[in-house]
Amino acid sequence: MVLIEDIVVNNIVMSFKLNDKLDRVKVKESFPSVDYPKRFSGGILKLDGGCLLIFNSGKINVTGVKSYEAAFNLIDKFCDIYPDNLYKTEAKVVNIVAHSRLITNFIYSRLDSFPYCSYEPELFPGVHVKVDNSNVIFIIFKRTGRVTVTGIRDIIELNKYFDLFKRIYRA
User: Fold this and answer.
1) Cα angle at 43 between 60 and 33, to 5 degrees?
2) Cα–Cα distance between 58 and 81 in angstroms, integer?
3) pLDDT value of position 166
4) What is the Cα 99 distance to its own chain's centre?
5) What is the DSSP secondary-structure string of 112-146?
6) Predicted local distance difference test score (pLDDT) of residue 170
7) Residues near 3 by Cβ (< 8 Å), separated by ≥ 6?
8) How far apart are CA 128 and CA 91, in angstroms?
9) Distance separating alpha carbons of residues 159 and 76, to the nearest angstrom
10) Global pTM value
């Protein structure tokens, strides 16, 4: 039986739509530390432990946070500081990245039972495993026993996918 330690959320990416388009000049005046790189269509603003990717269309992606609450707080802070009357009209989780650790002997050859599994140690030190047709991918690092999961869009799915991983691995 596979035992996994506590699951820890590393990063949540959320996409927000605002009620109006954004003006780069106003964004720069309100947030002097915002950066508009030439090879990126938006601005990058590091704020209170998170990162906002700001687009003129009125869409903002929040990344680098570990909870929904932190993402909502960042977007609310942005709207409060921006000079026009802004508010969020839509919020959507784009991706959740979490990790855990295997705490039992893990037999890597049993990963062959998964619908999709790849391991190319010359390119990347982790085994990539898909447990179903979704975008959820487990990355298992042989040396450390660390398990990273990405592609999840709801915290509730986190335990569901780890349970599915354990069930399939046992089969």
Assistant:
1) 115
2) 15
3) 76
4) 11
5) GGSSEEE--TTT-SEEEEE-SSSS-EEEEETTT-E
6) 65
7) 102, 103, 104
8) 29
9) 29
10) 0.87
- From CA 111, how far away is CA 170, in angstroms rounded? 10
What are the extents of the domains in the chain? 20-86, 96-170
Asked if 69 contacts 50 with a C-beta cutoff of 8 angstroms, the reply is no
Tokens representing residue 62 in the block: 């929040």
Q: What are the 10-residue block averages of pLDDT along the chain, 171 residues in total?
A: 72 97 96 95 95 97 96 97 95 94 73 77 88 88 87 89 77 52
Beta bridge partners of 150: 137
Domains 20-86 and 96-170 share a fold: yes
Q: Can you give the pLDDT at residue 1?
A: 45
Six-digit token string for 142: 């042989």
Return the CATH number of the domain spanning residue range 96-170: 3.30.310.10
Question: What dotted CATH number matches 20-86?
Answer: 3.30.310.10
The 10 Å Cβ neighbour count of residue 14 is 23
Tell me how far the alpha carbon of residue 9 is from its chain's centroid: 9
Q: Cα Rg for the chain, rounded, in angstroms?
A: 19
What pLDDT, on a 0 to 100 scale, did the predictor assign at position 107? 73
- What stretch of H or E contains 69? helix 68-81
